[in-house]
């Protein structure tokens, strides 16, 4: 049996703390289940590496990663390093060069999670965020003749090909999972060039999926609907910026930042896909051992699904759910008093009985 080869980039802040627990759970499965083998190689790239070497990863960093089956990523961010560097010299090059143009972010309330909302209905939908273009571009700059007239221009890039592939991915997913509706986040009433093209392309893709309804909502209204009727969503497709904002909002509905996983997917599987919690390095709690590792452990579950082991992925989510429902071992964000490591170990123990 061939072992899956995983590149582990723990990163900064709570990144290494939660990633260690995700690896612990994967190793528990490795020990328990003879049909599964996994190997890890760790790369200490991130802000410390930058402070020592003047760059976030070595020049041949992407080459070193490209033959792995997947990447498990912690988080990057450090107040001593500009965001421009942490984002644009590590995460973005990986996402762009490995053509991870789909960012999948499940918004699912697990059993036992108390909601901020009165609504007790199930919240379980998938957001597909465009991950390679859109509003997060480094095109733009400052223009001025005199300091007092300083202005900044930031360009959004929306391409027909870019929208087509993310929209297709969302509709394919909907079809495969027997969903009846895809919701598109737009703002073409005010952002009249780029979002207009977004709408046109999404509508044209939708025509190929006769059984699936396309609902198109302006982002402002959609944000409100997320709170008012989260149970009504099945699949949401959104641009880079809109998807980013919507999924933090979605995370808040299902237990917070510590409960929200993601995958950066290269659907063609030509390059490794990358899995990470949607939260950042959380400097406010880093080093205290209280970060919730569930988002990162769940991200590892998404990774196993991508690698063709949905059975093991489901087992991890079940193990997480059991630990939450027992309420004995939880981090403070979920109302408990346990540490990151204790939660990781509890989930690793549970999963052994499920695989
Ligand atoms: P970055 O600049 O790296 O994005 P940030 O300051 O934006 O970091 P986030 O990591 O996005 O911080 O977190 C936002 C808030 O959510 C913080 O108050 C943080 O403590 C909390 N938080 C994030 N992740 C977790 C987690 N895994 N467990 C508990 N709390 C978390
Ligand atoms: Mg953040």
Automatic annotation (TrEMBL):
A Pfam family cross-referenced in the UniProt record is Iso_dh
- InterPro entries according to UniProt: ICDH/IPMDH, IsoCit/isopropylmalate_DH_CS, IsoPropMal-DH-like_dom, TTC_DH
Q: Name one GO molecular function term.
A: D-malate dehydrogenase (decarboxylating) (NAD+) activity
Reaction catalyzed? (R)-malate + NAD(+) = pyruvate + CO2 + NADH
Q: Which residues form a coiled coil?
A: none
Spell out the family assignment given in the record's similarity comment: Belongs to the isocitrate and isopropylmalate dehydrogenases family. LeuB type 1 subfamily.
Q: Under what name is this protein listed?
A: 3-IPM-DH
This protein's species is Planococcus versutus
């Amino acid at each position: 049996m061939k072992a899956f080869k995983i590149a582990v980039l723990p990163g900064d802040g709570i990144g290494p703390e939660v990633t260690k627990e995700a690896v612990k759970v994967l190793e528990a499965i490795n020990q328990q289940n003879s049909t599964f083998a996994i190997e890890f190689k760790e790369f200490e790239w991130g802000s410390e590496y930058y402070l020592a070497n003047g760059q976030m990863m070595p020049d041949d960093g992407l080459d070193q990663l490209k033959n792995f089956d997947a990447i498990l990523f912690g988080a990057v961010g450090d107040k001593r390093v500009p965001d421009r560097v942490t984002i644009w010299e590590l995460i973005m090059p990986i996402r762009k060069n490995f053509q991870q143009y789909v960012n999948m972010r499940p918004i699912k309330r697990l059993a036992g999670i108390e909601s901020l909302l009165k609504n007790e209905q199930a919240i379980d939908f998938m957001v597909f965020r465009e991950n390679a273009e859109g509003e997060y571009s480094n095109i733009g700059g400052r223009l001025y003749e005199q300091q007092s007239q300083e202005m900044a221009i930031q360009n959004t890039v929306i391409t027909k090909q870019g929208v087509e592939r993310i929209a297709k991915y969302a509709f394919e997913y909907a079809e495969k999972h027997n969903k009846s509706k895809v919701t598109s986040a737009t703002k073409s009433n005010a952002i009249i060039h780029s979002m207009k093209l977004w709408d046109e392309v999404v509508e044209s893709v939708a025509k190929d999926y006769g059984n699936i309804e396309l609902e198109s909502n302006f982002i402002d209204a959609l944000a409100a609907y997320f709170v008012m009727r989260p149970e009504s969503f099945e699949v949401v497709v959104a641009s880079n910026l809109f998807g980013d904002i919507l999924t933090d909002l979605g995370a808040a509905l299902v237990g917070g930042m510590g409960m929200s996983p993601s995958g950066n997917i290269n659907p063609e599987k030509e390059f490794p896909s990358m899995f990470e919690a949607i939260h950042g390095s959380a400097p406010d709690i880093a080093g205290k051992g209280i970060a919730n590792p569930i988002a990162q452990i769940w991200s590892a579950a998404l990774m196993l699904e991508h690698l063709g082991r949905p059975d093991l992925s489901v087992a991890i989510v079940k193990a997480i759910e059991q630990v939450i429902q027992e309420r004995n071992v939880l981090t403070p964000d979920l109302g408990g008093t346990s540490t990151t490591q204790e939660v990781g170990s509890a989930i690793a123990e549970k999963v052994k009985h499920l695989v």
